[in-house]
Every structure is written in C-alpha cells, then in structure tokens.
Amino acid sequence: MPSPTIVLVHGAFADSASWAPVTRLLLDSGYDVRVPPVFNRSLSGDAAYIKRFVEQIDGPVLLAGHSYGGAVITVAGVAENVVGLVYVSGYALAEGESLGQLQGGFPDSDLAANLVYEPYTLPDGTDGTDVSVKIDAFPAIFAAGVDPRTAEVLAHSQRPLSAIAFGEGATAVAWETKPAWGIVSSADHTINPEVERFGYKRAGLRGVVEIDAPHLVMHSHPAEVAAVITDAIADLG
C-alpha cells in the first residue's frame, strides 16, 4: 500500500493552526499532509464535509482527529479510502452517541464552568448558540504548558462550537471497521482523560499512548504526536 495522505482534523475552540507544529514535523519527514477547516456547526455537517474532502484525495488516507475532531473522524472515517484513524485527546463515539452523552458519564472537568454562550443566526433565521472558552481561562483549561504568548493568541482566535453539535448522535462509526490508535492527554482539563480512555478501550484501539500533556497536546508535545501518527502508518504496512 502506498503511504497514505495524512488528514489532520481540528476540534472545537481551535482551527487548523492548532495542528501547525505537527504539520511541520510531518512535512519535514516527507509525508503528504492536509489540514482542512472544520466549521464546528454540527457533527453531521462537519463529518459530511470531511468525508467529501477525503474522497477527493487520490489514494489511501489516514485520518487524525483532535478533541471534537475525534467525533468528526468517527463518522467521516467510513469513507472508502480511509485506512486508519488516530484519536488525539478525542471523542471515540459509539453509534447514536453524542458528545454530551459520552462526556456526561465522566463529568469531572474544568471546562463546563469556563464556557461562554453566545447567539448566532442559523440559515433558517432562528437563533443558534455558539460555545467558546473564556479568553482568560483558555490558557489554563485548553493550553497549559504551551508558550503563554502562543496560548494567548489561540485564545483570541478560537473557533466556537455550535451547541447543536453537543447533542447530535454519531450516524456512523468508522472504528468498527477501520484500525485505530489513540493518544490520552493525562493532564487534560478540557476533556476528562477518563472520557478518552473509556472511548478508546470500548473501540478496541490497536494502541494507546498516554502523554502527560494538556488538551492541546499537538502544541506541547508535537514530536510525540507525530510519532504516534507515523507509527500508525508503519503498523498499516
């Protein structure tokens, strides 16, 4: 099998730049890497967009999803040319399960008390709700261990997640038919690490690596994240 294209999927409260340190390492190692935007409007819509994006790539694809991006790749990963999944501090949902349901089973997180809710207009003219992290809490909750000046920029440029996405169940589950690997951020204050461990164990991932890192592990430990991705490719043969 030719070396797959690596597609890196960002999560909530972030954008494609959240993958920048890992992208640089993978490019320097000669891999073909794509980092598409995720609009964070709905799980079904975001997954449909990523699935279509992946299907336009000629050849096999390895999907890596961070945080909410893990939920997105769970659904989008059923694309025929996806050969594997890597969950990075991510949600490995079961079919019909929502982010809120999985997170609700392990409620001990610092995130809930530091969220901001703001209205936005849906295409039909009704109000939706955007959810973001308080700017002053963002470095400690989302990016502890990251350079403070970088964390400040990320806090001010975060992409909100629509509240709709929290309650939407996964309509497909790629890990049932595709090999998958996972990273647990054991110092995560955004997602309870037990959410990650539970989801990965249930999915029967081939390998799970624990890193003493914050939620934004791609910035604090990019070499370790890149290594998990490249090791997954090696494991695929």
UniProtKB/TrEMBL annotation:
Which ranges does the record mark as transmembrane?
none
Instruction: Tell me what this protein is called.
Output: Alpha/beta hydrolase
Q: Where is the AB hydrolase-1 domain?
A: 6-228
Cross-referenced Pfam families: Abhydrolase_6
Q: Does the keyword Glycoprotein apply?
A: no
Keyword entries, A-Z: Hydrolase
Q: Does the keyword Amino-acid biosynthesis apply?
A: no
> Which species expresses this protein natively?
Cryptosporangium phraense
Which molecular-function annotations from GO does this UniProt entry contain? hydrolase activity
SUPFAM superfamilies per UniProt: alpha/beta-Hydrolases
